[in-house]
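Need the bound structure for S-adenosylmethionine, inputs here:
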Amino acid sequence: MADEVWTVGRLLGWTTEWLATKGSESARLDAEVLLAHVRGCPRIALYTAFEEPVDDAQRSRFRDLVKRRGAGEPVAYLVGSREFFSIPFRVTPAVLVPRPETEGLVVRVLDLCRHLERARIADVGTGSGAIAVALAKHLPHAVITATDLSAEALAVARSNVERHGVVERVTLMEGDLLAGATGPFDIVVSNPPYVREDEFAGLPADVRLHEPRGALVSGPTGVEVIARLAAAAAPLLAPGGWLVVEVGPADEARDSLAAVAGLEVRPTIPDLAGRPRIVQAQRG
Ligand SMILES: C[S@@+](CC[C@H](N)C(=O)[O-])C[C@H]1O[C@@H](n2cnc3c(N)ncnc32)[C@H](O)[C@@H]1O
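Answer from helper R.:
Posting the output first, comments after.
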């Protein structure tokens, strides 16, 4: 009977309700992204295909992905991709899923680079390479060193750097913070781990159980990595160069920047929700 056919529209409706019962706060979006992935089409194309039946093979693949989403796996890992700064990035469970709030960090660096002909930038803890690639795409003469402690993350970053054609200007380095990097840099930018150890258990399950712990947790205070980064960055910054860092607890982060000789703290920038989000310092 016609009303038993699983059309795109009916499948999306049913799945949205089911994912909502499993606690997804973006159930409709999740359902659409997963179905578009299975059908190999842009999400927008689903809207003109509501009455089209979904065949058994596609439904079976979709069911499997929806089940995994219902169990908490982030959609970005299920489809292997996430947009950041309107650029598609490959993501795997080896890297943090790039967050929209981190786009503010890119905007800030672009702003600082407006007057620089050939900015020299370091992106510390590059993960998927999201920040480094977005900057390279928007600053056609910039040269960028992108580091990460995780070889698996750097492999993902490499594939994104290649995919977006910026290999010649983005150098990937495996190591702790800026170890082995050669300055001077006009900008050191980072979205480092900043979750306190005692906060970790309270993170949403999809983050806590699926994203890499080493990308999230800093230590008992949440500012351990930021404090070490500030100390490592100061001697590598050009005079007047900037350290720009996404943070959780902003007061503590600002204090750890202020504690480093040669760095002068600059005003903290809030995110769109009004929370202090980007701390900054400038080399005197
Ligand atoms: C919060 S994630 C940010 C990833 C990416 N930059 C983004 O914004 O989506 C932090 C990254 O820093 C890396 N990391 C953690 N400790 C590090 C260290 N001591 N030196 C270099 N990278 C580190 C992690 O492996 C992870 O990829």
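Comments: Residues 95-96, 98, 102, 124-128, 130-131, 147-150, 153, 176-177, 191-193, 214-215, 225 surround S-adenosylmethionine (CB under 6 Å). Residues 2-71 form a domain with the Helicase, Ruva Protein; domain 3 fold (CATH 1.10.8).
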